[in-house]
Specification:
By secondary structure, the chain is mainly alpha-helical. The protein has three helices and no strands. It is about 55% helix and about 0% strand.
Amino acid sequence: MMMVSDDCLVECRIDDSDEDDGSGEQMRTPPPPPEFASKGTTPSPKPPTPPAAPALPVSRDPYGINRHLQVDVSDVLAEPAAPRSIDQVWLYSVVGFEKTRVWTYRVLTLLLAVPFAFLCGLFLAVLACLHVWFVVPFIQLSNTFLPCLRSIWICSLNVFISPLCSSVALCCSQVAVSVSKQEWSAKKEREIA
């Protein structure tokens, strides 16, 4: 059996006096010698798990599309400081406003939300189908055939339209219009008479 050297011994003061308030030096204990150290790693204590928090409501508008629809009573009803109604009247009007707003919204969404969501889904599905099966293939095919059509179009313009426009331009280039003030005033007098 091996003896422990005095280097590894640590002095511990055990007394109940409050003389040492932590301002003095603390004695640091050296690590145990390798003979006495544990072979495996000591698992660190698990931190206590916090109590389960109540589940937060899921955000139904994560991108803030309808931020402008957050209407409060003070956005609609307001009373000046001087002529005030009875406190109970104000309280009941606020409660009436809130309850009417909430329940009207709930009833309307109960009646309209599911059919409207169905129609929106149907509309978006039709748009996606048309886009995938008609629009994109048409664009890809036209991009494939456009160079050929472009050359045919340029050729037809150069053969038919360009000479016609040049001929009309040459014919019209010799036309000269002159209007004198006397002719203009005579024409106006004939129109009046």
